[in-house]
Design brief:
CATH superfamily of one domain in chain B: Cytochrome c-like domain
Mean pLDDT of chain A: 93
Distance between the termini of chain A: 73 Å
Mean pLDDT of chain B: 91
Oligomer: heterodimer
Shape of chain B: elongated
Largest sheet of chain B: none
Structural class of chain B: mainly alpha
Number of strands of chain B: 0
Low-confidence stretches of chain B: none
Largest sheet of chain A: none
Structural class of chain A: mainly alpha
Strand content of chain A: under 5%
Radius of gyration of chain B: 29 Å
CATH architecture of one domain in chain B: Orthogonal Bundle
Chain lengths: 217, 217
Protein backbone atom coordinates (compact mmCIF):
# COMPACT_ATOMS: atom_id res chain seq x y z
CA UNK A 1 0.00 0.00 0.00
CA UNK A 2 1.40 3.32 -1.01
CA UNK A 3 1.69 6.23 1.37
CA UNK A 4 -1.57 8.25 1.33
CA UNK A 5 -0.36 10.91 3.77
CA UNK A 6 3.14 12.29 4.26
CA UNK A 7 4.73 11.79 7.63
CA UNK A 8 4.31 15.46 8.61
CA UNK A 9 0.55 14.87 8.95
CA UNK A 10 1.27 13.08 12.22
CA UNK A 11 1.94 16.48 13.80
CA UNK A 12 -1.22 18.04 12.41
CA UNK A 13 -3.63 17.40 15.33
CA UNK A 14 -1.21 19.03 17.73
CA UNK A 15 -0.69 21.96 15.37
CA UNK A 16 -4.44 22.48 15.05
CA UNK A 17 -4.84 22.49 18.83
CA UNK A 18 -2.04 25.02 19.22
CA UNK A 19 -3.55 27.16 16.48
CA UNK A 20 -6.98 27.09 18.11
CA UNK A 21 -5.31 28.15 21.35
CA UNK A 22 -3.75 31.10 19.55
CA UNK A 23 -7.12 32.00 17.99
CA UNK A 24 -8.85 31.92 21.40
CA UNK A 25 -6.06 34.13 22.76
CA UNK A 26 -6.53 36.68 19.97
CA UNK A 27 -10.32 36.62 20.43
CA UNK A 28 -9.96 37.13 24.21
CA UNK A 29 -7.59 40.02 23.68
CA UNK A 30 -9.96 41.54 21.12
CA UNK A 31 -13.03 41.26 23.37
CA UNK A 32 -11.12 42.64 26.37
CA UNK A 33 -9.84 45.59 24.41
CA UNK A 34 -12.78 46.42 22.18
CA UNK A 35 -15.97 45.27 23.86
CA UNK A 36 -15.88 47.63 26.82
CA UNK A 37 -16.97 51.28 27.19
CA UNK A 38 -13.28 52.21 27.31
CA UNK A 39 -13.36 51.62 23.57
CA UNK A 40 -17.02 51.97 22.61
CA UNK A 41 -17.76 55.23 24.45
CA UNK A 42 -14.54 57.07 25.34
CA UNK A 43 -13.84 59.58 22.59
CA UNK A 44 -17.47 59.97 21.49
CA UNK A 45 -17.70 63.58 20.31
CA UNK A 46 -20.81 64.00 18.16
CA UNK A 47 -21.41 67.02 15.97
CA UNK A 48 -23.96 69.21 17.80
CA UNK A 49 -26.59 71.41 16.12
CA UNK A 50 -24.81 74.47 17.54
CA UNK A 51 -21.00 74.37 17.81
CA UNK A 52 -21.10 75.39 21.49
CA UNK A 53 -17.67 75.66 23.10
CA UNK A 54 -17.54 74.90 26.81
CA UNK A 55 -13.91 76.09 26.86
CA UNK A 56 -14.91 79.56 25.66
CA UNK A 57 -17.88 79.92 28.00
CA UNK A 58 -16.08 78.67 31.11
CA UNK A 59 -12.55 79.93 30.66
CA UNK A 60 -13.12 83.13 28.71
CA UNK A 61 -16.56 84.22 29.99
CA UNK A 62 -16.14 82.61 33.41
CA UNK A 63 -19.56 80.99 33.65
CA UNK A 64 -20.20 78.56 36.49
CA UNK A 65 -21.43 75.11 35.39
CA UNK A 66 -24.71 75.86 37.18
CA UNK A 67 -25.48 78.96 35.13
CA UNK A 68 -26.70 76.59 32.40
CA UNK A 69 -26.95 73.22 34.17
CA UNK A 70 -28.99 74.92 36.84
CA UNK A 71 -30.63 71.86 38.36
CA UNK A 72 -27.53 69.74 38.78
CA UNK A 73 -27.35 70.45 42.52
CA UNK A 74 -31.10 70.07 43.07
CA UNK A 75 -32.18 67.23 40.84
CA UNK A 76 -31.11 63.75 39.86
CA UNK A 77 -31.06 64.92 36.26
CA UNK A 78 -28.53 67.53 35.18
CA UNK A 79 -30.50 69.62 32.74
CA UNK A 80 -29.46 70.74 29.31
CA UNK A 81 -30.21 74.48 29.37
CA UNK A 82 -33.32 75.98 27.86
CA UNK A 83 -32.97 78.17 24.78
CA UNK A 84 -33.87 81.10 27.01
CA UNK A 85 -30.70 80.48 29.01
CA UNK A 86 -28.67 81.03 25.83
CA UNK A 87 -30.79 84.05 24.93
CA UNK A 88 -30.02 85.69 28.30
CA UNK A 89 -26.83 86.87 26.60
CA UNK A 90 -27.28 85.97 22.95
CA UNK A 91 -30.31 88.21 22.52
CA UNK A 92 -27.63 90.92 22.40
CA UNK A 93 -24.27 89.18 21.99
CA UNK A 94 -23.91 87.70 18.48
CA UNK A 95 -27.63 88.21 18.08
CA UNK A 96 -27.60 87.57 14.33
CA UNK A 97 -25.00 84.81 14.13
CA UNK A 98 -26.16 82.08 11.72
CA UNK A 99 -24.53 79.51 14.03
CA UNK A 100 -27.08 80.41 16.71
CA UNK A 101 -30.09 80.11 14.40
CA UNK A 102 -31.30 76.82 16.00
CA UNK A 103 -31.30 78.49 19.44
CA UNK A 104 -33.27 81.52 18.21
CA UNK A 105 -35.75 79.27 16.45
CA UNK A 106 -36.19 77.22 19.62
CA UNK A 107 -36.69 80.36 21.71
CA UNK A 108 -39.28 81.81 19.34
CA UNK A 109 -41.24 78.65 18.55
CA UNK A 110 -40.75 76.63 21.72
CA UNK A 111 -39.37 73.67 19.82
CA UNK A 112 -36.36 71.85 21.29
CA UNK A 113 -32.82 72.29 20.01
CA UNK A 114 -31.84 68.77 18.86
CA UNK A 115 -28.76 68.42 21.07
CA UNK A 116 -27.08 65.02 20.85
CA UNK A 117 -26.92 63.21 24.18
CA UNK A 118 -23.33 62.15 24.94
CA UNK A 119 -23.10 60.91 28.52
CA UNK A 120 -25.89 58.56 29.41
CA UNK A 121 -26.47 55.71 31.79
CA UNK A 122 -28.34 52.65 30.56
CA UNK A 123 -31.96 52.51 31.72
CA UNK A 124 -31.19 49.69 34.17
CA UNK A 125 -28.78 51.86 36.16
CA UNK A 126 -29.86 54.70 38.45
CA UNK A 127 -27.70 57.79 38.76
CA UNK A 128 -28.43 60.96 40.72
CA UNK A 129 -26.38 64.09 39.97
CA UNK A 130 -27.36 66.18 42.99
CA UNK A 131 -26.25 63.66 45.61
CA UNK A 132 -22.83 63.44 43.96
CA UNK A 133 -22.12 67.16 43.54
CA UNK A 134 -23.51 67.93 47.01
CA UNK A 135 -21.13 65.39 48.55
CA UNK A 136 -17.88 66.63 47.10
CA UNK A 137 -17.78 64.69 43.83
CA UNK A 138 -16.81 67.13 41.11
CA UNK A 139 -18.16 67.16 37.56
CA UNK A 140 -14.64 66.48 36.33
CA UNK A 141 -14.55 63.01 37.92
CA UNK A 142 -17.02 61.61 35.38
CA UNK A 143 -17.07 64.18 32.57
CA UNK A 144 -13.37 65.04 32.32
CA UNK A 145 -12.09 68.55 31.82
CA UNK A 146 -15.15 69.88 30.01
CA UNK A 147 -13.89 73.39 30.76
CA UNK A 148 -11.09 72.77 28.27
CA UNK A 149 -13.20 71.16 25.56
CA UNK A 150 -14.29 73.03 22.45
CA UNK A 151 -16.31 69.98 21.45
CA UNK A 152 -17.50 67.83 24.33
CA UNK A 153 -15.89 64.44 24.23
CA UNK A 154 -16.77 61.37 26.31
CA UNK A 155 -13.74 61.24 28.59
CA UNK A 156 -14.37 58.40 31.05
CA UNK A 157 -15.80 54.93 30.37
CA UNK A 158 -18.67 55.36 32.92
CA UNK A 159 -18.76 51.59 33.13
CA UNK A 160 -19.82 49.71 36.24
CA UNK A 161 -16.17 49.10 37.11
CA UNK A 162 -15.61 52.86 36.89
CA UNK A 163 -18.47 53.59 39.30
CA UNK A 164 -17.54 50.84 41.73
CA UNK A 165 -13.90 51.88 41.86
CA UNK A 166 -14.95 55.21 43.39
CA UNK A 167 -17.80 53.81 45.49
CA UNK A 168 -15.29 51.51 47.20
CA UNK A 169 -12.77 54.28 47.88
CA UNK A 170 -14.64 57.60 47.82
CA UNK A 171 -11.97 59.27 49.99
CA UNK A 172 -9.67 59.39 46.95
CA UNK A 173 -12.17 61.36 44.87
CA UNK A 174 -13.74 63.78 47.34
CA UNK A 175 -13.24 67.51 46.90
CA UNK A 176 -13.84 70.40 49.22
CA UNK A 177 -17.53 71.26 48.50
CA UNK A 178 -16.54 74.74 47.31
CA UNK A 179 -14.21 73.20 44.69
CA UNK A 180 -16.81 70.88 43.14
CA UNK A 181 -17.63 73.19 40.22
CA UNK A 182 -14.02 74.25 39.71
CA UNK A 183 -12.81 71.62 37.29
CA UNK A 184 -9.17 72.64 37.71
CA UNK A 185 -9.25 72.03 41.47
CA UNK A 186 -7.57 69.12 43.22
CA UNK A 187 -9.19 66.40 45.31
CA UNK A 188 -8.52 66.45 49.04
CA UNK A 189 -6.34 63.36 48.60
CA UNK A 190 -4.28 65.10 45.91
CA UNK A 191 -3.78 68.02 48.29
CA UNK A 192 -2.50 65.58 50.89
CA UNK A 193 -5.57 66.15 53.09
CA UNK A 194 -6.55 62.50 53.50
CA UNK A 195 -7.59 63.17 57.10
CA UNK A 196 -10.01 65.91 55.99
CA UNK A 197 -11.41 63.56 53.36
CA UNK A 198 -12.05 60.87 55.99
CA UNK A 199 -13.65 63.43 58.27
CA UNK A 200 -15.84 64.71 55.43
CA UNK A 201 -17.04 61.18 54.65
CA UNK A 202 -17.90 60.67 58.30
CA UNK A 203 -19.53 64.04 58.99
CA UNK A 204 -21.58 64.05 55.82
CA UNK A 205 -22.48 60.37 56.24
CA UNK A 206 -21.18 59.50 52.78
CA UNK A 207 -21.96 55.83 52.37
CA UNK A 208 -21.56 55.16 48.68
CA UNK A 209 -23.64 52.02 48.06
CA UNK A 210 -21.79 48.94 46.87
CA UNK A 211 -24.80 46.66 46.85
CA UNK A 212 -26.53 45.75 43.57
CA UNK A 213 -29.74 47.53 44.51
CA UNK A 214 -27.91 50.80 45.13
CA UNK A 215 -27.90 51.45 41.40
CA UNK A 216 -30.00 48.66 39.86
CA UNK A 217 -33.14 49.54 41.72
CA UNK B 1 1.05 25.98 8.75
CA UNK B 2 3.21 29.07 8.49
CA UNK B 3 0.75 30.44 5.95
CA UNK B 4 -2.17 29.97 8.31
CA UNK B 5 -0.40 32.06 10.96
CA UNK B 6 0.49 34.72 8.40
CA UNK B 7 -3.14 34.94 7.25
CA UNK B 8 -4.31 35.12 10.91
CA UNK B 9 -1.81 37.87 11.64
CA UNK B 10 -2.95 39.73 8.53
CA UNK B 11 -6.63 39.47 9.51
CA UNK B 12 -5.87 40.62 13.07
CA UNK B 13 -3.84 43.57 11.78
CA UNK B 14 -6.66 44.43 9.39
CA UNK B 15 -9.25 44.40 12.20
CA UNK B 16 -7.09 46.56 14.45
CA UNK B 17 -6.55 49.04 11.63
CA UNK B 18 -10.32 49.20 11.02
CA UNK B 19 -11.37 49.39 14.70
CA UNK B 20 -8.59 51.71 15.75
CA UNK B 21 -7.33 52.27 19.28
CA UNK B 22 -9.12 53.28 22.48
CA UNK B 23 -9.80 56.92 23.20
CA UNK B 24 -9.67 58.24 19.62
CA UNK B 25 -12.34 60.87 19.00
CA UNK B 26 -15.26 59.79 16.80
CA UNK B 27 -18.59 61.31 15.87
CA UNK B 28 -20.81 58.37 14.91
CA UNK B 29 -23.11 56.95 17.62
CA UNK B 30 -21.32 54.51 19.95
CA UNK B 31 -21.50 50.81 19.23
CA UNK B 32 -23.83 48.75 21.41
CA UNK B 33 -21.91 45.68 22.57
CA UNK B 34 -25.17 44.17 23.81
CA UNK B 35 -27.54 45.22 21.05
CA UNK B 36 -31.17 45.96 21.67
CA UNK B 37 -32.42 43.14 19.41
CA UNK B 38 -30.55 40.54 21.43
CA UNK B 39 -31.35 41.96 24.88
CA UNK B 40 -34.64 43.84 24.48
CA UNK B 41 -35.90 46.12 27.22
CA UNK B 42 -32.68 46.35 29.21
CA UNK B 43 -30.63 49.31 28.06
CA UNK B 44 -33.61 51.06 26.48
CA UNK B 45 -36.62 50.47 28.69
CA UNK B 46 -40.09 51.63 27.75
CA UNK B 47 -39.96 54.69 29.99
CA UNK B 48 -39.29 58.39 29.54
CA UNK B 49 -36.28 60.08 31.01
CA UNK B 50 -36.07 63.81 31.73
CA UNK B 51 -35.61 65.96 28.61
CA UNK B 52 -35.83 62.93 26.35
CA UNK B 53 -37.81 62.66 23.14
CA UNK B 54 -41.08 60.90 22.43
CA UNK B 55 -42.74 60.05 19.14
CA UNK B 56 -46.10 59.88 20.90
CA UNK B 57 -46.51 63.60 21.50
CA UNK B 58 -46.84 66.02 18.59
CA UNK B 59 -44.01 68.29 19.73
CA UNK B 60 -41.63 65.32 20.08
CA UNK B 61 -40.94 65.96 23.75
CA UNK B 62 -41.39 63.50 26.61
CA UNK B 63 -41.51 66.35 29.15
CA UNK B 64 -45.05 67.71 29.42
CA UNK B 65 -46.22 71.08 30.66
CA UNK B 66 -48.93 71.00 33.36
CA UNK B 67 -52.41 71.38 31.79
CA UNK B 68 -53.82 74.92 31.86
CA UNK B 69 -55.50 76.07 35.09
CA UNK B 70 -54.01 73.27 37.19
CA UNK B 71 -51.66 73.44 40.13
CA UNK B 72 -49.17 70.77 41.10
CA UNK B 73 -49.55 69.25 44.54
CA UNK B 74 -47.87 71.44 47.13
CA UNK B 75 -47.11 74.13 44.54
CA UNK B 76 -50.01 76.47 45.24
CA UNK B 77 -48.19 79.79 45.57
CA UNK B 78 -50.77 81.59 47.67
CA UNK B 79 -48.55 84.01 49.56
CA UNK B 80 -48.39 87.13 47.35
CA UNK B 81 -45.56 88.59 49.40
CA UNK B 82 -43.37 85.50 49.18
CA UNK B 83 -44.09 84.47 45.60
CA UNK B 84 -44.85 87.73 43.79
CA UNK B 85 -43.41 90.50 45.95
CA UNK B 86 -46.78 92.22 46.34
CA UNK B 87 -48.90 93.12 49.34
CA UNK B 88 -52.64 92.56 49.75
CA UNK B 89 -53.41 95.78 47.83
CA UNK B 90 -51.23 94.67 44.90
CA UNK B 91 -48.44 97.19 45.56
CA UNK B 92 -44.74 96.24 45.61
CA UNK B 93 -43.64 95.26 49.11
CA UNK B 94 -40.88 97.17 50.86
CA UNK B 95 -39.95 94.35 53.24
CA UNK B 96 -38.85 90.74 53.16
CA UNK B 97 -41.52 88.04 53.60
CA UNK B 98 -42.07 86.69 57.09
CA UNK B 99 -40.91 83.23 55.95
CA UNK B 100 -37.49 84.59 54.98
CA UNK B 101 -35.12 85.34 57.85
CA UNK B 102 -32.63 87.98 56.75
CA UNK B 103 -29.43 86.78 58.36
CA UNK B 104 -25.84 85.94 57.52
CA UNK B 105 -26.86 82.58 56.08
CA UNK B 106 -29.31 84.20 53.65
CA UNK B 107 -26.68 86.70 52.54
CA UNK B 108 -24.15 83.92 51.95
CA UNK B 109 -26.72 82.02 49.90
CA UNK B 110 -27.45 85.24 48.04
CA UNK B 111 -23.77 85.77 47.35
CA UNK B 112 -23.45 82.19 46.07
CA UNK B 113 -26.44 82.50 43.71
CA UNK B 114 -25.48 86.04 42.68
CA UNK B 115 -22.00 84.87 41.69
CA UNK B 116 -23.43 82.13 39.49
CA UNK B 117 -26.35 83.88 37.80
CA UNK B 118 -26.03 87.66 38.14
CA UNK B 119 -22.33 88.52 38.21
CA UNK B 120 -21.96 87.68 34.51
CA UNK B 121 -23.77 90.90 33.58
CA UNK B 122 -24.01 92.95 36.78
CA UNK B 123 -20.40 92.43 37.87
CA UNK B 124 -19.06 91.32 41.24
CA UNK B 125 -19.63 94.79 42.73
CA UNK B 126 -23.09 95.20 41.22
CA UNK B 127 -21.98 98.17 39.13
CA UNK B 128 -22.86 96.61 35.78
CA UNK B 129 -19.24 95.87 34.98
CA UNK B 130 -19.80 92.21 34.14
CA UNK B 131 -17.97 90.18 31.51
CA UNK B 132 -20.83 90.67 29.02
CA UNK B 133 -19.89 94.35 28.83
CA UNK B 134 -16.83 93.28 26.86
CA UNK B 135 -19.09 91.58 24.35
CA UNK B 136 -21.25 94.64 23.85
CA UNK B 137 -24.08 93.82 26.26
CA UNK B 138 -25.11 96.49 28.75
CA UNK B 139 -23.28 99.60 29.86
CA UNK B 140 -22.20 101.12 33.15
CA UNK B 141 -24.80 103.85 32.91
CA UNK B 142 -27.86 101.68 32.32
CA UNK B 143 -30.00 99.54 34.56
CA UNK B 144 -27.24 96.97 35.05
CA UNK B 145 -25.70 99.30 37.63
CA UNK B 146 -27.31 98.93 41.09
CA UNK B 147 -25.69 102.08 42.41
CA UNK B 148 -28.13 104.53 40.92
CA UNK B 149 -30.91 106.37 42.75
CA UNK B 150 -33.53 104.54 40.70
CA UNK B 151 -32.34 101.12 41.85
CA UNK B 152 -31.48 102.22 45.39
CA UNK B 153 -35.06 103.38 45.77
CA UNK B 154 -36.57 100.37 44.05
CA UNK B 155 -38.71 98.33 46.42
CA UNK B 156 -37.78 94.80 47.47
CA UNK B 157 -40.91 93.57 45.75
CA UNK B 158 -39.97 95.11 42.43
CA UNK B 159 -36.42 93.71 42.61
CA UNK B 160 -37.95 90.30 43.31
CA UNK B 161 -40.32 90.73 40.38
CA UNK B 162 -37.47 91.69 38.04
CA UNK B 163 -35.61 88.49 38.89
CA UNK B 164 -38.81 86.48 38.47
CA UNK B 165 -40.13 88.00 35.23
CA UNK B 166 -37.19 89.85 33.73
CA UNK B 167 -36.62 93.57 33.40
CA UNK B 168 -39.14 96.05 32.02
CA UNK B 169 -36.69 96.83 29.20
CA UNK B 170 -36.67 93.10 28.28
CA UNK B 171 -32.87 93.11 28.17
CA UNK B 172 -32.77 90.91 31.25
CA UNK B 173 -34.84 87.76 30.77
CA UNK B 174 -36.64 85.92 33.61
CA UNK B 175 -34.54 83.90 36.06
CA UNK B 176 -37.46 82.17 37.76
CA UNK B 177 -36.44 78.83 36.26
CA UNK B 178 -32.99 79.08 37.83
CA UNK B 179 -33.75 80.67 41.19
CA UNK B 180 -36.44 79.37 43.52
CA UNK B 181 -38.45 82.06 45.35
CA UNK B 182 -36.34 81.71 48.52
CA UNK B 183 -33.15 82.06 46.46
CA UNK B 184 -34.57 85.13 44.72
CA UNK B 185 -35.11 86.76 48.12
CA UNK B 186 -31.54 85.79 49.06
CA UNK B 187 -30.31 87.57 45.93
CA UNK B 188 -32.44 90.62 46.73
CA UNK B 189 -30.84 90.71 50.19
CA UNK B 190 -27.38 90.44 48.65
CA UNK B 191 -28.16 93.26 46.19
CA UNK B 192 -29.11 95.41 49.18
CA UNK B 193 -25.81 94.44 50.84
CA UNK B 194 -23.90 95.46 47.69
CA UNK B 195 -25.73 98.79 47.59
CA UNK B 196 -25.01 99.39 51.28
CA UNK B 197 -21.34 98.47 50.83
CA UNK B 198 -21.06 100.91 47.93
CA UNK B 199 -22.23 103.72 50.21
CA UNK B 200 -19.90 102.61 52.99
CA UNK B 201 -17.35 104.90 54.66
CA UNK B 202 -14.27 104.20 56.75
CA UNK B 203 -16.38 104.68 59.87
CA UNK B 204 -18.49 101.64 58.93
CA UNK B 205 -15.53 99.28 59.39
CA UNK B 206 -15.72 98.25 63.04
CA UNK B 207 -13.61 95.10 63.01
CA UNK B 208 -10.13 95.95 64.33
CA UNK B 209 -8.29 93.43 62.14
CA UNK B 210 -10.14 94.62 59.05
CA UNK B 211 -9.31 98.24 59.86
CA UNK B 212 -5.64 97.33 60.04
CA UNK B 213 -5.75 95.44 56.73
CA UNK B 214 -7.44 98.38 55.04
CA UNK B 215 -5.00 100.84 56.59
CA UNK B 216 -7.68 102.81 58.44
CA UNK B 217 -6.31 104.72 61.44
Amino acid sequence: MSKLFPKSVNKLPLQIIVYLGVLVGIATAGVTYYMTPKYTRVGYAPVQPVPFSHAKHVQEVGLDCRYCHSNVDKSGHSNVPTAQTCMNCHSVVKATSPLLAPVRESYEKGTPVPWVWIHTTPDYAYFNHSIHVNRGVSCVECHGKVNEMDTVRHAQPLSMAFCIECHRNPENRIRDPKDVFNLDSKTLAEQGRQKDAQEFLHNWKVKAPESCSGCHR
Amino acid sequence: MRHVYLVTLFVAALLVSILGLRGVAFTSPPLDVFPEWAFPGMKYQPKFRPQSSSEFFADGRADRMPPANTVMRGMLAEDDHLFRGKDAAGAWVKTFPAAIAVDRQLLERGRDRYTIYCQVCHGAAGDGNGITLRYGMGSLTTNGNYHTDRLRNMTEGELFNTITNGSVSKVMLPYADKLEPADRWAVVAYIRALQRAHQGTAADVTDAAARQTLGIQ
